[in-house]
Amino acid sequence: MSDADSTALKARIDTIEGGYELFLSYAAKGYRGGDPQTGGDLRRSIEEMDKALDGLGAFLSSLARERALEPIAPYDAFFDVIDGDAGRARKALQLVLAQPGISSQVIDNLNGSIHLRAVLTDLFLIDEILRPRASESVPAAALAHEEPPPPDTTSTS
Predict the structure, then answer these.
(1) At what angle do helices 72-97 and 104-111 cross, to 10 degrees?
(2) How wide is the angle at C-alpha 55 spanned by C-alphas 53 and 57, nearest 5°?
(3) Based on C-alpha coordinates, what's the Rg of the chain?
(4) Domains and CATH numbers, the chain
(5) Model pLDDT for residues 50-103, shown as the tens digit of each residue
(6) CA distance linking residue 117 with residue 147, whole number of Å
(7) What interhelical angle do 3-27 and 40-53 show, nearest 10?
């Protein structure tokens, strides 16, 4: 994965996760949602999350192909799942944005939405899989010949 793609993936994940965290804070404030001016930062965050979710499956698919991950079929199948979860989460976000005022209770319910939670979990899983691992830089033969650590002789028990 190129540095630019890795940065773009991190930015998408940070935007979605950051929005979720903002929702937690907003939900705890007890806003009634009657004032359309309330929640400017919230609306911006929802819009940014919506943008970060747009085309997420295709973006991830291009990353997998760039890294020549094989077999590609399981990746594509999971990217379809992510795309579906992202699409459903976007619909929920857009529904909330359509409201003239956004109450804390609406945000609390949005935060509890299985669609939003699913896409977050999907992203955490695929990020961990796509992230270069330290063990990839160590040849398997070196790992196979690794000596166990010496016993701890400092213990007095």
Answers:
(1) 170
(2) 95
(3) 21
(4) 3-132 (1.20.120)
(5) 999 999 999 999 999 998 999 999 999 999 999 999 999 999 999 999 999 899
(6) 42
(7) 140
